[in-house]
Amino acid sequence: MWGEVLWLWLGSFFGGIFVVKFHRPLSLGLLISISTIALWSICFVLFGQKGWIPLIPPALGLLFTGAIVLAYKVLYGLSYDVLTDLPTRNLLHQKIQRLSNQSKYTQIALFFLDLYRFRLINEGFGHAIGDQLLISTTKRLKKCLHSQVILARVCGDEFAVMMPNIQNIDQAIAMANQLKKALAAPFYLNGQQVYTTISIGIAYSNQNPHLVAHDLLRDAHTAMYRAKALGNNRYQVYISTMKSQALQQLQLEADLREAIKNQEFQLYYQPIIDLKTNQIAGFEALVRWISPQRGFVSPGEFIPVSEESGLIIPLGEWILLEGCRQLAIWHQKYCQNPPFMLSINLSTRQFSQVNLIECVDQILTETGVDRNCIKLEITESAIMDDVDEAIALLEQLKSLGIKLSMDDFGTGYSSLSYLHRFPIDTLKVDQSFVRRMDDSQQNTEIVKTIIMLGHNLNMDIVAEGIEAEGNVQTLKNLNCEYGQGYFFSKPLPVTALEDLLNRTLYQS
Predict the structure, then answer these.
(1) d(Cα 308, Cα 312) in Å, to the nearest integer?
(2) Cβ contact 197:232 at 8 Å
(3) Sign of torsion, CA 6 11 15 18?
(4) How far apart are CA 444 and CA 477, in angstroms?
(5) Are 235 and 200 in contact (CB under 8 A)?
(6) Cα-trace Rg, the chain
């Protein structure tokens, strides 16, 4: 009868609607249970009034339809992203492999896109705005692509674009520029104006008959990370050397972990000279890695890897501990007045370390070093990421009794309007200006301006990279307090530095 059919249809309809609208298993199970009880109650009441409607068919329809829709959602979620309705990484992998097996598609270009500052947008505006940004980004990207091109969301803030049947890499590069242009304009999300850019990695099959989809995905991902390392809003085409470089970096990171565990590092110390007295006023601690397998490893090679991997945290703690321990020994051995200062670099990663204050305080207490003689050097970029938070952290460091220095001043992006708020004791003039003072009056004027600025803010000045006697005289004329560079001494291990101290302090 039509009434029974309608009753069965309503049960099935609501079963499907419940599964579509409710995502949490607990809520869904509770709702279906309540619906089943309500259905039984209706049937029982009508039966008491000498009426009758079927109970079992609509109940089974409710359950079976819900189960079918739930199974569909699960299967759909394996192949398509729920938020953007784009293919997932797994489906993209299948499509690439299918196209590579078709002879008419001789060449495939794959783009990996990473949204710049997406995590910051998520944290600042909330996940709802972040989701809207992903949806709006999807719409903009789709407008740039023709029907044969496949757009996928591979994870988080990363998208992939597969462009089949291209003739040469120039087509892929033109597409990359088109994608960059599409996302250059601001997004307007819930009244908020949001800017983002993309880093793009490009890999292409290059008429390879043995193309493996996994390899193409990996190569595009590698190229994308290379583009991010070189700066945002740019593309990078994959080349074969990137794979070997990635493997080398992974091996270097593994060796670096072992080196920290086995204490394969040494501290070298470069003297800092008082330009008024020409005497050694202190040192800068510089880490060196002497590997049993690799030999001497340049800091320019392992420091960036330690920063990226987070290994700079334990390495930085060791540097601070060893430097403070050594300075305490020198204070007992050489009774200088004023005592030697020791400058130790604090990396950007360390500056954002959660327990930085506790860690520094513990090391200072453990070594018993004179806290007034420890100076932590911090780069401009580390300070300017979040000015107010940085000022609060610098104040906490100052409260430990140590001194602070801004390293490589003039090369970063610090604002002069903030400089007077930083509790900084020393400005270090970057060596790029100091070395070229004799070549250009303009560089001399830059150094002069930095020195005057520092003095007006009650800071002393250290000039780095002094390599010629002319630099020394110019800096003295500009009333620069301290100098550092190969003209005075290269970085030295402890024994060599103590030989230098014995010669200079007791030569009379």
Answers:
(1) 8
(2) yes
(3) positive
(4) 11
(5) yes
(6) 33
In angstroms, the first-to-last Cα distance of the chain is 119
Tell me the per-residue pLDDT of 289-328, one tens digit each, with 9 for 90 and over. 998 888 999 898 899 889 888 899 999 999 999 999 999 9
Of 472, 473, 428, 434, nearest to 284 (Cα)? 428
What tokens were used for 461? 């000045």
Question: Of all helices (H) and strands (E), which one includes residue 187?
Answer: strand 187-189
Is the per-residue pLDDT at 496 higher than 90? yes
Mean of pLDDT values over 145-162:
87
Q: Tell me how long the chain is.
A: 508
Secondary structure of 222-256 in HEC code, one letter for each residue: HHHHHHHHHCCCEEEECCCHHHHHHHHHHHHHHHH
Contact 346, 376 (CB under 8 A): yes
Distance between CA 428 and CA 3 in Å, rounded? 88
The pTM (predicted TM-score) of the whole model is 0.66
C-alpha 38/C-alpha 34 separation (Å) is 6
Q: Name residue, tokens 């003095």.
A: 455
| CA–CA dist 96, 162 (Å, integer) | 8
- pLDDT by residue (tens digit) across 66-101? 666 666 566 656 678 878 888 888 888 888 877 777
**3-state percent breakdown (helix, strand, coil) of the chain, nearest 5:** 55, 20, 25
- Between CA 257 and CA 263 the distance in angstroms is 10
Task: Read off the DSSP letter of residue 371.
Answer: G
Q: For residues 221 and 114, give the distance between their C-alpha atoms in angstroms, rounded to a whole number.
A: 10
HSE-CB for 508 with a 13 A CA cutoff: 1
DSSP state of 201: E
Of 159, 122, 118, 120, residue with least CA distance to 138: 159
Q: If you search the block for the tokens 């279906």, which residue do you land on? A: 32
Side-chain half-sphere exposure of 374, counting CA atoms within 13 A: 30
Bond into 338 cis (ω within 30): yes
Six token digits for residue 8: 């069965």
Please report which confidence band the pLDDT of residue 497 belongs to, taking 50, 70 and 90 as the band edges: very high
DSSP code of 80?
Answer: B
